[in-house]
Amino acid sequence: MSFSIGGHLVAEELHRAGVRDLFTLCGGHIAPIYDGCLRSGIRMIDTRHEQAAAHAGDGYARLTRGPGVALVTAGPGVTDAVTGIANAFQAQSPLVVLGGAAEVRLAGRGALQEMEQLPMMRSITKWCATASDPRRLRELVQTAIRQAVGGVPGPVFLELPFDILMAQVDANELVVPPVLPPWPRTQAATEQVEQAAALLQAASKPVIFAGSQVYWDGAAAALDSLCAATHIPVVCNGMGRGVLPADHPQLLALARKKALRSTDLVLIIGTPLDFRVGFGASINPAAKIIQLDRDLTQLGKNRATDLALGGHVDLVLGQLQAALGGGAALRERFAPWLGELRAEEHKQLGQLAAHMHPGGRPINHYQLAAALAEALGAGPKGTGKIADDVILIGDGGDVVALASKVIPLARPGQWLDPGPLGCLGVGAPFALAAKALDPGNQKRVVVLSGDGSFGLNGFDFESCVRFGFKVTVVVGNDAAWGQIRGPQMMAFGAERAPATKLAPVRYDRVMEAFGGVGFHVEDHSQLLPTLRQAIEHPTAACVNVTIDPEFVVNSG
Predict the structure, then answer these.
(1) Rounded to two decimals, what is the model's pTM?
(2) Which end of the chain, N or C, is surrounded by fewer C-beta atoms within 10 Å?
(3) What is the pLDDT of residues 117-167, one digit of tens each?
(4) Are 540 and 461 in contact (CB under 8 A)?
(5) How far are the Cα atoms of 39, 229, 417, 425, 462 from residue 394, in angstroms, in the given order?
(6) Could you give the C-alpha distances from 257 to 134, 260, 279, 344, 373, in angstroms and in order?
(7) Mean pLDDT estimate for the chain
Protein backbone atom coordinates (compact mmCIF):
# COMPACT_ATOMS: atom_id res chain seq x y z
CA MET A 1 0.00 0.00 0.00
CA SER A 2 1.39 3.43 -0.99
CA PHE A 3 0.23 6.91 -0.09
CA SER A 4 0.71 10.40 -1.50
CA ILE A 5 -0.34 13.73 -0.06
CA GLY A 6 -2.58 16.03 -2.08
CA GLY A 7 0.08 18.63 -2.87
CA HIS A 8 2.26 15.97 -4.45
CA LEU A 9 -0.63 14.78 -6.61
CA VAL A 10 -1.19 18.32 -7.94
CA ALA A 11 2.46 18.58 -8.97
CA GLU A 12 2.49 15.10 -10.51
CA GLU A 13 -0.45 15.93 -12.76
CA LEU A 14 1.04 19.26 -13.78
CA HIS A 15 4.27 17.50 -14.72
CA ARG A 16 2.43 14.81 -16.68
CA ALA A 17 0.69 17.60 -18.62
CA GLY A 18 4.07 19.01 -19.65
CA VAL A 19 4.33 21.86 -17.12
CA ARG A 20 7.99 22.52 -16.34
CA ASP A 21 7.79 26.07 -14.97
CA LEU A 22 5.27 27.86 -12.79
CA PHE A 23 5.16 31.35 -11.32
CA THR A 24 4.38 31.89 -7.69
CA LEU A 25 4.69 33.84 -4.47
CA CYS A 26 5.04 31.79 -1.32
CA GLY A 27 2.36 31.18 1.30
CA GLY A 28 1.70 28.53 3.91
CA HIS A 29 -1.48 27.31 2.25
CA ILE A 30 0.37 26.13 -0.87
CA ALA A 31 3.52 24.67 0.74
CA PRO A 32 2.45 21.06 0.00
CA ILE A 33 2.42 21.85 -3.73
CA TYR A 34 5.91 23.37 -3.45
CA ASP A 35 7.18 20.11 -2.00
CA GLY A 36 5.46 18.25 -4.82
CA CYS A 37 7.09 20.49 -7.43
CA LEU A 38 10.52 19.75 -5.96
CA ARG A 39 9.78 16.03 -6.18
CA SER A 40 8.43 16.27 -9.76
CA GLY A 41 11.13 18.57 -11.17
CA ILE A 42 8.95 21.62 -11.79
CA ARG A 43 10.85 24.90 -11.55
CA MET A 44 9.19 27.51 -9.36
CA ILE A 45 9.93 31.11 -10.38
CA ASP A 46 8.92 33.25 -7.43
CA THR A 47 7.84 36.83 -8.03
CA ARG A 48 7.49 39.84 -5.77
CA HIS A 49 3.73 40.20 -6.22
CA GLU A 50 0.99 37.76 -7.15
CA GLN A 51 -0.18 40.07 -9.94
CA ALA A 52 3.23 39.52 -11.52
CA ALA A 53 2.91 35.75 -11.10
CA ALA A 54 -0.38 35.80 -12.98
CA HIS A 55 1.00 38.08 -15.71
CA ALA A 56 4.05 35.83 -16.06
CA GLY A 57 1.85 32.74 -16.44
CA ASP A 58 -0.13 34.64 -19.08
CA GLY A 59 3.08 35.60 -20.91
CA TYR A 60 4.29 32.00 -20.77
CA ALA A 61 1.01 30.86 -22.33
CA ARG A 62 1.29 33.41 -25.12
CA LEU A 63 4.85 32.42 -25.98
CA THR A 64 4.21 28.65 -25.90
CA ARG A 65 0.62 28.73 -27.21
CA GLY A 66 -0.10 26.35 -24.33
CA PRO A 67 -1.02 26.58 -20.66
CA GLY A 68 0.86 28.89 -18.33
CA VAL A 69 0.58 28.26 -14.60
CA ALA A 70 0.48 30.61 -11.60
CA LEU A 71 0.34 29.33 -8.05
CA VAL A 72 -0.78 31.78 -5.34
CA THR A 73 -1.66 31.53 -1.71
CA ALA A 74 -5.06 32.07 -0.09
CA GLY A 75 -6.92 35.33 0.51
CA PRO A 76 -4.73 38.30 -0.42
CA GLY A 77 -2.61 36.05 -2.62
CA VAL A 78 -5.67 35.29 -4.72
CA THR A 79 -6.98 38.85 -4.69
CA ASP A 80 -3.56 40.18 -5.74
CA ALA A 81 -3.69 37.89 -8.80
CA VAL A 82 -7.07 39.18 -9.98
CA THR A 83 -5.70 41.87 -12.32
CA GLY A 84 -3.42 39.41 -14.10
CA ILE A 85 -6.27 36.93 -14.48
CA ALA A 86 -8.60 39.60 -15.87
CA ASN A 87 -5.94 40.62 -18.38
CA ALA A 88 -5.55 37.01 -19.54
CA PHE A 89 -9.33 36.68 -19.82
CA GLN A 90 -9.60 39.62 -22.21
CA ALA A 91 -6.62 38.32 -24.20
CA GLN A 92 -8.02 34.75 -24.43
CA SER A 93 -4.81 33.40 -22.90
CA PRO A 94 -4.88 29.89 -21.32
CA LEU A 95 -3.68 30.79 -17.83
CA VAL A 96 -4.13 28.13 -15.12
CA VAL A 97 -4.28 29.69 -11.65
CA LEU A 98 -4.02 27.43 -8.61
CA GLY A 99 -5.07 29.21 -5.45
CA GLY A 100 -4.63 28.13 -1.87
CA ALA A 101 -7.56 28.26 0.51
CA ALA A 102 -8.36 27.86 4.18
CA GLU A 103 -9.11 24.37 5.44
CA VAL A 104 -12.50 22.91 4.57
CA ARG A 105 -12.97 21.70 8.15
CA LEU A 106 -12.75 25.32 9.35
CA ALA A 107 -15.10 26.83 6.78
CA GLY A 108 -17.08 29.76 8.15
CA ARG A 109 -15.13 29.99 11.40
CA GLY A 110 -12.77 32.81 10.42
CA ALA A 111 -9.60 30.89 9.59
CA LEU A 112 -6.48 32.73 8.48
CA GLN A 113 -7.02 34.31 5.02
CA GLU A 114 -10.43 32.64 4.68
CA MET A 115 -12.71 34.31 2.14
CA GLU A 116 -15.15 33.50 -0.65
CA GLN A 117 -12.78 33.25 -3.61
CA LEU A 118 -14.85 31.56 -6.32
CA PRO A 119 -17.57 34.25 -6.61
CA MET A 120 -14.82 36.80 -7.26
CA MET A 121 -13.33 34.63 -10.02
CA ARG A 122 -16.46 33.68 -11.94
CA SER A 123 -16.64 36.81 -14.08
CA ILE A 124 -12.96 36.70 -15.17
CA THR A 125 -12.40 32.99 -15.80
CA LYS A 126 -13.75 30.34 -18.16
CA TRP A 127 -14.06 27.85 -15.33
CA CYS A 128 -13.48 27.76 -11.59
CA ALA A 129 -13.92 25.08 -8.96
CA THR A 130 -12.94 23.99 -5.44
CA ALA A 131 -11.22 20.69 -4.69
CA SER A 132 -13.13 18.93 -1.94
CA ASP A 133 -11.90 15.34 -2.35
CA PRO A 134 -8.13 14.70 -2.37
CA ARG A 135 -8.64 11.51 -4.37
CA ARG A 136 -9.83 13.61 -7.33
CA LEU A 137 -7.02 16.18 -7.32
CA ARG A 138 -5.28 14.85 -10.43
CA GLU A 139 -8.61 14.77 -12.26
CA LEU A 140 -9.35 18.38 -11.28
CA VAL A 141 -5.91 19.62 -12.32
CA GLN A 142 -6.36 17.98 -15.71
CA THR A 143 -9.85 19.47 -16.00
CA ALA A 144 -8.43 22.93 -15.29
CA ILE A 145 -5.87 22.52 -18.07
CA ARG A 146 -8.46 21.15 -20.49
CA GLN A 147 -10.80 24.04 -19.78
CA ALA A 148 -8.02 26.61 -20.21
CA VAL A 149 -6.80 25.42 -23.62
CA GLY A 150 -9.96 23.92 -25.11
CA GLY A 151 -12.33 25.80 -27.39
CA VAL A 152 -11.80 29.52 -26.92
CA PRO A 153 -8.77 29.60 -24.56
CA GLY A 154 -8.82 31.58 -21.36
CA PRO A 155 -7.90 31.59 -17.67
CA VAL A 156 -9.23 29.12 -15.12
CA PHE A 157 -9.05 28.99 -11.32
CA LEU A 158 -8.80 25.92 -9.12
CA GLU A 159 -9.15 26.50 -5.38
CA LEU A 160 -7.11 24.09 -3.25
CA PRO A 161 -7.88 24.05 0.50
CA PHE A 162 -4.89 23.35 2.74
CA ASP A 163 -6.32 20.24 4.40
CA ILE A 164 -7.05 18.75 0.95
CA LEU A 165 -3.43 19.35 -0.04
CA MET A 166 -2.15 17.75 3.18
CA ALA A 167 -4.50 14.76 3.08
CA GLN A 168 -3.00 11.31 2.49
CA VAL A 169 -4.42 9.41 -0.46
CA ASP A 170 -4.15 5.64 -0.90
CA ALA A 171 -2.92 4.87 -4.42
CA ASN A 172 -5.70 2.28 -4.75
CA GLU A 173 -8.32 5.00 -4.29
CA LEU A 174 -6.71 7.67 -6.44
CA VAL A 175 -8.53 8.86 -9.58
CA VAL A 176 -5.94 9.09 -12.38
CA PRO A 177 -7.54 10.43 -15.59
CA PRO A 178 -6.37 9.25 -19.02
CA VAL A 179 -3.89 11.46 -20.85
CA LEU A 180 -5.52 14.29 -22.77
CA PRO A 181 -5.79 13.63 -26.52
CA PRO A 182 -4.43 16.04 -29.14
CA TRP A 183 -6.90 18.87 -29.70
CA PRO A 184 -8.97 18.63 -32.90
CA ARG A 185 -8.57 21.21 -35.64
CA THR A 186 -11.73 22.22 -37.47
CA GLN A 187 -12.49 23.58 -40.92
CA ALA A 188 -15.28 25.89 -42.03
CA ALA A 189 -18.27 24.61 -44.00
CA THR A 190 -17.35 24.23 -47.68
CA GLU A 191 -20.31 26.22 -48.95
CA GLN A 192 -19.48 29.15 -46.64
CA VAL A 193 -15.86 29.15 -47.80
CA GLU A 194 -17.06 29.26 -51.42
CA GLN A 195 -19.32 32.21 -50.56
CA ALA A 196 -16.38 34.00 -48.96
CA ALA A 197 -14.26 33.38 -52.04
CA ALA A 198 -17.02 34.77 -54.27
CA LEU A 199 -17.24 37.95 -52.16
CA LEU A 200 -13.47 38.44 -52.33
CA GLN A 201 -13.41 37.87 -56.09
CA ALA A 202 -16.12 40.48 -56.52
CA ALA A 203 -14.29 43.08 -54.44
CA SER A 204 -11.99 45.73 -55.88
CA LYS A 205 -10.43 47.03 -52.63
CA PRO A 206 -10.29 44.13 -50.17
CA VAL A 207 -8.33 44.19 -46.90
CA ILE A 208 -7.33 41.39 -44.53
CA PHE A 209 -7.51 42.45 -40.88
CA ALA A 210 -5.35 39.89 -39.03
CA GLY A 211 -5.74 39.60 -35.27
CA SER A 212 -4.38 37.54 -32.41
CA GLN A 213 -5.93 34.25 -33.50
CA VAL A 214 -3.64 34.16 -36.55
CA TYR A 215 -0.81 33.89 -34.01
CA TRP A 216 -2.57 31.53 -31.59
CA ASP A 217 -3.50 29.12 -34.40
CA GLY A 218 -0.01 29.18 -35.91
CA ALA A 219 -1.44 30.48 -39.18
CA ALA A 220 1.35 32.88 -40.24
CA ALA A 221 2.45 30.65 -43.13
CA ALA A 222 -1.14 30.20 -44.32
CA LEU A 223 -1.70 33.97 -44.27
CA ASP A 224 1.55 34.57 -46.16
CA SER A 225 0.53 32.02 -48.79
CA LEU A 226 -2.89 33.63 -49.24
CA CYS A 227 -1.27 37.07 -49.59
CA ALA A 228 1.21 35.80 -52.19
CA ALA A 229 -1.62 34.26 -54.20
CA THR A 230 -3.90 37.32 -54.15
CA HIS A 231 -1.88 40.46 -53.25
CA ILE A 232 -4.62 41.48 -50.80
CA PRO A 233 -3.27 44.15 -48.38
CA VAL A 234 -3.03 43.19 -44.71
CA VAL A 235 -3.32 45.23 -41.52
CA CYS A 236 -2.73 43.68 -38.09
CA ASN A 237 -4.02 43.95 -34.55
CA GLY A 238 -3.05 42.54 -31.16
CA MET A 239 -0.76 39.53 -31.37
CA GLY A 240 -1.33 39.58 -35.10
CA ARG A 241 1.57 42.03 -35.14
CA GLY A 242 4.56 40.15 -36.48
CA VAL A 243 2.69 37.33 -38.21
CA LEU A 244 3.99 38.91 -41.42
CA PRO A 245 7.47 40.48 -41.32
CA ALA A 246 7.73 44.27 -41.54
CA ASP A 247 9.17 44.14 -45.05
CA HIS A 248 6.34 41.95 -46.41
CA PRO A 249 4.99 43.55 -49.62
CA GLN A 250 1.33 43.26 -48.56
CA LEU A 251 1.73 44.38 -44.94
CA LEU A 252 0.62 47.89 -43.96
CA ALA A 253 1.52 49.41 -40.59
CA LEU A 254 0.88 53.13 -41.08
CA ALA A 255 -1.79 53.12 -43.79
CA ARG A 256 -4.26 51.14 -41.67
CA LYS A 257 -6.71 54.04 -41.26
CA LYS A 258 -6.90 54.69 -45.01
CA ALA A 259 -7.12 50.97 -45.78
CA LEU A 260 -10.11 50.44 -43.48
CA ARG A 261 -11.82 53.69 -44.49
CA SER A 262 -11.50 53.05 -48.23
CA THR A 263 -12.02 49.30 -48.45
CA ASP A 264 -15.08 47.67 -49.98
CA LEU A 265 -14.56 44.33 -48.19
CA VAL A 266 -12.73 43.30 -45.02
CA LEU A 267 -11.80 39.76 -44.07
CA ILE A 268 -11.55 40.03 -40.26
CA ILE A 269 -9.53 37.18 -38.77
CA GLY A 270 -9.67 36.55 -35.06
CA THR A 271 -9.93 40.05 -33.65
CA PRO A 272 -12.93 41.68 -31.98
CA LEU A 273 -14.51 44.84 -33.34
CA ASP A 274 -13.85 46.67 -30.09
CA PHE A 275 -12.65 50.16 -29.14
CA ARG A 276 -9.47 49.73 -31.19
CA VAL A 277 -11.50 50.00 -34.40
CA GLY A 278 -14.27 52.24 -33.11
CA PHE A 279 -16.50 49.19 -32.51
CA GLY A 280 -16.51 48.64 -36.26
CA ALA A 281 -17.15 52.29 -37.20
CA SER A 282 -13.53 52.77 -38.34
CA ILE A 283 -14.31 50.46 -41.27
CA ASN A 284 -16.06 51.92 -44.32
CA PRO A 285 -19.81 51.66 -43.54
CA ALA A 286 -20.46 50.45 -47.09
CA ALA A 287 -17.85 47.67 -46.92
CA LYS A 288 -18.87 44.04 -46.79
CA ILE A 289 -17.62 42.08 -43.78
CA ILE A 290 -16.38 38.50 -43.73
CA GLN A 291 -15.56 37.48 -40.17
CA LEU A 292 -13.54 34.41 -39.14
CA ASP A 293 -13.35 33.75 -35.40
CA ARG A 294 -13.00 30.77 -33.08
CA ASP A 295 -15.19 32.64 -30.57
CA LEU A 296 -18.58 32.43 -32.23
CA THR A 297 -20.02 34.99 -29.81
CA GLN A 298 -17.89 37.66 -31.53
CA LEU A 299 -19.43 37.05 -34.95
CA GLY A 300 -21.63 40.02 -35.86
CA LYS A 301 -20.86 41.86 -32.62
CA ASN A 302 -20.92 45.69 -33.02
CA ARG A 303 -21.11 45.47 -36.82
CA ALA A 304 -23.29 43.45 -39.19
CA THR A 305 -21.42 40.55 -40.79
CA ASP A 306 -22.14 39.54 -44.37
CA LEU A 307 -20.57 36.13 -43.89
CA ALA A 308 -19.44 34.38 -40.71
CA LEU A 309 -16.85 31.60 -40.63
CA GLY A 310 -15.74 29.41 -37.73
CA GLY A 311 -12.74 27.13 -37.49
CA HIS A 312 -9.01 26.85 -37.06
CA VAL A 313 -7.46 29.87 -38.83
CA ASP A 314 -4.66 27.85 -40.44
CA LEU A 315 -7.08 25.40 -42.03
CA VAL A 316 -9.74 27.92 -43.02
CA LEU A 317 -7.23 30.17 -44.78
CA GLY A 318 -6.02 27.12 -46.70
CA GLN A 319 -9.60 26.34 -47.69
CA LEU A 320 -10.13 29.94 -48.78
CA GLN A 321 -6.99 30.02 -50.90
CA ALA A 322 -7.99 26.79 -52.62
CA ALA A 323 -11.47 28.21 -53.33
CA LEU A 324 -10.01 31.44 -54.74
CA GLY A 325 -7.61 29.65 -57.00
CA GLY A 326 -5.13 32.57 -56.87
CA GLY A 327 -3.35 33.25 -60.11
CA ALA A 328 -2.37 36.37 -62.02
CA ALA A 329 -5.92 37.65 -62.48
CA LEU A 330 -6.51 38.45 -58.82
CA ARG A 331 -3.03 39.84 -58.29
CA GLU A 332 -3.38 42.09 -61.33
CA ARG A 333 -6.82 43.32 -60.28
CA PHE A 334 -5.75 44.21 -56.74
CA ALA A 335 -2.40 45.74 -57.77
CA PRO A 336 -3.70 49.35 -58.14
CA TRP A 337 -5.34 49.19 -54.71
CA LEU A 338 -2.20 47.80 -53.11
CA GLY A 339 -0.15 50.49 -54.86
CA GLU A 340 -2.45 53.22 -53.52
CA LEU A 341 -2.01 51.96 -49.97
CA ARG A 342 1.74 51.51 -50.32
CA ALA A 343 1.95 55.16 -51.41
CA GLU A 344 0.03 56.13 -48.26
CA GLU A 345 2.37 53.96 -46.18
CA HIS A 346 5.38 55.75 -47.67
CA LYS A 347 3.78 59.16 -47.04
CA GLN A 348 3.04 58.35 -43.40
CA LEU A 349 6.53 56.97 -42.83
CA GLY A 350 7.97 60.19 -44.25
CA GLN A 351 5.94 62.24 -41.80
CA LEU A 352 7.11 60.10 -38.88
CA ALA A 353 10.70 60.20 -40.11
CA ALA A 354 10.70 63.95 -39.55
CA HIS A 355 10.05 63.30 -35.85
CA MET A 356 12.74 60.61 -35.78
CA HIS A 357 15.40 63.00 -37.10
CA PRO A 358 18.34 63.03 -34.66
CA GLY A 359 18.34 65.96 -32.31
CA GLY A 360 19.76 66.94 -28.96
CA ARG A 361 17.35 67.13 -26.07
CA PRO A 362 14.68 66.51 -25.04
CA ILE A 363 14.41 63.15 -26.77
CA ASN A 364 10.94 62.44 -28.18
CA HIS A 365 9.04 59.16 -28.26
CA TYR A 366 9.71 58.42 -31.93
CA GLN A 367 13.43 59.09 -31.56
CA LEU A 368 13.55 56.63 -28.67
CA ALA A 369 11.65 53.98 -30.61
CA ALA A 370 13.75 54.41 -33.76
CA ALA A 371 17.01 54.18 -31.80
CA LEU A 372 15.78 51.07 -29.99
CA ALA A 373 14.81 49.44 -33.29
CA GLU A 374 18.24 50.21 -34.72
CA ALA A 375 19.95 48.84 -31.60
CA LEU A 376 17.96 45.62 -32.13
CA GLY A 377 19.11 45.19 -35.73
CA ALA A 378 16.72 47.29 -37.83
CA GLY A 379 17.81 50.04 -40.19
CA PRO A 380 17.63 53.73 -39.32
CA LYS A 381 14.24 55.44 -38.89
CA GLY A 382 12.15 52.29 -38.69
CA THR A 383 13.40 50.62 -41.88
CA GLY A 384 14.27 46.94 -42.28
CA LYS A 385 13.30 44.77 -39.33
CA ILE A 386 14.65 43.86 -35.92
CA ALA A 387 16.60 40.63 -35.43
CA ASP A 388 14.87 37.25 -35.06
CA ASP A 389 16.32 36.59 -31.60
CA VAL A 390 14.57 39.61 -30.06
CA ILE A 391 11.42 39.50 -27.93
CA LEU A 392 10.07 43.01 -27.37
CA ILE A 393 7.58 43.70 -24.60
CA GLY A 394 5.56 46.92 -24.57
CA ASP A 395 4.43 48.10 -21.15
CA GLY A 396 3.23 51.68 -21.13
CA GLY A 397 1.01 54.32 -22.67
CA ASP A 398 2.21 56.82 -25.27
CA VAL A 399 5.78 55.55 -25.30
CA VAL A 400 4.56 52.11 -26.38
CA ALA A 401 1.70 53.22 -28.64
CA LEU A 402 4.01 55.42 -30.69
CA ALA A 403 6.82 52.85 -30.73
CA SER A 404 4.47 50.23 -32.18
CA LYS A 405 4.17 52.41 -35.29
CA VAL A 406 7.89 52.45 -36.07
CA ILE A 407 9.52 49.31 -34.64
CA PRO A 408 9.58 46.79 -37.51
CA LEU A 409 8.93 43.20 -36.41
CA ALA A 410 10.43 40.13 -38.02
CA ARG A 411 8.33 37.17 -36.86
CA PRO A 412 5.24 35.99 -34.97
CA GLY A 413 5.34 36.24 -31.18
CA GLN A 414 8.06 38.88 -31.23
CA TRP A 415 5.90 41.67 -29.79
CA LEU A 416 4.01 41.24 -26.51
CA ASP A 417 1.78 43.86 -24.96
CA PRO A 418 -1.04 43.73 -22.40
CA GLY A 419 -3.80 43.19 -24.96
CA PRO A 420 -7.33 44.61 -25.06
CA LEU A 421 -7.70 45.21 -21.31
CA GLY A 422 -4.93 47.83 -21.53
CA CYS A 423 -3.38 46.64 -18.27
CA LEU A 424 -0.06 48.20 -17.30
CA GLY A 425 2.56 46.27 -15.35
CA VAL A 426 3.16 43.30 -17.68
CA GLY A 427 6.76 44.26 -18.53
CA ALA A 428 8.86 42.47 -15.91
CA PRO A 429 6.47 39.48 -15.62
CA PHE A 430 6.37 38.88 -19.39
CA ALA A 431 10.17 39.18 -19.39
CA LEU A 432 10.36 36.50 -16.69
CA ALA A 433 8.23 34.23 -18.88
CA ALA A 434 10.34 34.88 -21.97
CA LYS A 435 13.59 34.13 -20.17
CA ALA A 436 12.16 31.03 -18.50
CA LEU A 437 11.73 29.70 -22.04
CA ASP A 438 15.31 30.65 -22.97
CA PRO A 439 17.52 28.18 -21.07
CA GLY A 440 20.67 29.27 -22.88
CA ASN A 441 20.01 32.95 -22.09
CA GLN A 442 20.56 33.66 -25.78
CA LYS A 443 17.48 35.69 -26.70
CA ARG A 444 17.49 39.44 -26.31
CA VAL A 445 14.44 40.20 -24.19
CA VAL A 446 13.73 43.93 -24.06
CA VAL A 447 10.97 45.73 -22.18
CA LEU A 448 9.96 49.16 -23.45
CA SER A 449 8.34 50.74 -20.41
CA GLY A 450 6.75 53.98 -19.40
CA ASP A 451 7.89 55.39 -16.09
CA GLY A 452 4.38 54.97 -14.71
CA SER A 453 4.09 51.32 -15.69
CA PHE A 454 7.56 50.56 -14.26
CA GLY A 455 6.16 51.33 -10.81
CA LEU A 456 3.49 48.63 -10.96
CA ASN A 457 5.62 45.48 -11.15
CA GLY A 458 9.11 46.90 -11.50
CA PHE A 459 10.26 45.03 -8.40
CA ASP A 460 10.16 41.89 -10.51
CA PHE A 461 13.24 43.06 -12.35
CA GLU A 462 14.83 41.97 -9.07
CA SER A 463 13.39 38.54 -9.82
CA CYS A 464 15.13 38.66 -13.20
CA VAL A 465 18.42 39.45 -11.46
CA ARG A 466 17.87 36.73 -8.85
CA PHE A 467 17.27 34.06 -11.49
CA GLY A 468 20.15 35.22 -13.67
CA PHE A 469 17.84 36.29 -16.50
CA LYS A 470 19.46 38.72 -18.93
CA VAL A 471 16.72 41.31 -19.51
CA THR A 472 16.92 44.93 -20.66
CA VAL A 473 14.28 47.49 -19.67
CA VAL A 474 14.21 50.82 -21.50
CA VAL A 475 12.21 53.42 -19.57
CA GLY A 476 10.77 56.36 -21.50
CA ASN A 477 10.67 58.77 -18.58
CA ASP A 478 8.50 61.86 -18.96
CA ALA A 479 7.84 62.06 -15.20
CA ALA A 480 4.11 61.74 -15.83
CA TRP A 481 1.24 59.44 -16.69
CA GLY A 482 1.63 60.93 -20.15
CA GLN A 483 -1.19 59.20 -22.01
CA ILE A 484 -3.67 60.52 -19.43
CA ARG A 485 -2.05 63.88 -18.70
CA GLY A 486 -2.06 65.00 -22.34
CA PRO A 487 -5.83 64.69 -22.89
CA GLN A 488 -6.55 66.18 -19.44
CA MET A 489 -4.42 69.21 -20.26
CA MET A 490 -6.10 69.67 -23.63
CA ALA A 491 -9.57 69.36 -22.11
CA PHE A 492 -9.16 71.29 -18.86
CA GLY A 493 -5.77 73.07 -18.94
CA ALA A 494 -2.42 72.27 -17.39
CA GLU A 495 -3.48 73.63 -14.01
CA ARG A 496 -6.44 71.22 -13.90
CA ALA A 497 -4.71 67.93 -14.64
CA PRO A 498 -4.30 66.43 -11.15
CA ALA A 499 -2.84 63.01 -10.30
CA THR A 500 -0.91 62.79 -13.57
CA LYS A 501 2.55 64.10 -12.59
CA LEU A 502 5.35 61.88 -11.29
CA ALA A 503 8.81 62.62 -9.94
CA PRO A 504 11.75 62.31 -12.37
CA VAL A 505 12.92 59.07 -10.74
CA ARG A 506 16.23 57.52 -11.79
CA TYR A 507 15.00 54.02 -12.59
CA ASP A 508 18.50 53.06 -13.68
CA ARG A 509 19.54 53.39 -10.04
CA VAL A 510 16.60 51.23 -8.99
CA MET A 511 17.97 48.47 -11.23
CA GLU A 512 21.42 48.95 -9.72
CA ALA A 513 19.91 48.50 -6.26
CA PHE A 514 18.48 45.18 -7.45
CA GLY A 515 21.95 44.04 -8.51
CA GLY A 516 21.71 44.85 -12.22
CA VAL A 517 23.31 47.70 -14.15
CA GLY A 518 21.86 51.10 -14.99
CA PHE A 519 22.34 53.74 -17.67
CA HIS A 520 20.91 57.24 -17.89
CA VAL A 521 20.43 59.16 -21.16
CA GLU A 522 19.29 62.74 -21.66
CA ASP A 523 20.90 63.65 -25.00
CA HIS A 524 20.08 61.99 -28.33
CA SER A 525 23.78 61.65 -29.23
CA GLN A 526 24.18 59.11 -26.43
CA LEU A 527 20.97 57.19 -27.05
CA LEU A 528 21.92 54.57 -29.66
CA PRO A 529 25.35 53.67 -28.22
CA THR A 530 23.92 53.39 -24.72
CA LEU A 531 21.04 51.16 -25.85
CA ARG A 532 23.50 48.89 -27.65
CA GLN A 533 25.72 48.70 -24.58
CA ALA A 534 22.80 47.85 -22.29
CA ILE A 535 21.29 45.24 -24.60
CA GLU A 536 24.61 43.41 -24.92
CA HIS A 537 25.41 43.62 -21.20
CA PRO A 538 25.57 40.14 -19.62
CA THR A 539 23.23 41.00 -16.74
CA ALA A 540 19.85 42.66 -16.30
CA ALA A 541 20.04 46.30 -17.31
CA CYS A 542 17.93 49.45 -17.26
CA VAL A 543 18.26 52.45 -19.56
CA ASN A 544 16.45 55.44 -18.09
CA VAL A 545 15.75 57.86 -20.96
CA THR A 546 14.49 61.35 -20.21
CA ILE A 547 11.85 62.13 -22.86
CA ASP A 548 9.85 65.22 -23.78
CA PRO A 549 6.70 65.42 -21.60
CA GLU A 550 5.07 67.81 -24.07
CA PHE A 551 5.82 65.95 -27.30
CA VAL A 552 2.51 64.11 -27.77
CA VAL A 553 0.44 67.20 -26.99
CA ASN A 554 2.47 69.47 -29.26
CA SER A 555 2.71 67.00 -32.16
CA GLY A 556 -0.92 65.92 -32.00
Answers:
(1) 0.95
(2) N
(3) 999 999 999 999 999 999 999 999 999 999 999 989 999 999 999 999 999
(4) yes
(5) 36, 33, 5, 10, 19
(6) 55, 5, 14, 10, 23
(7) 93
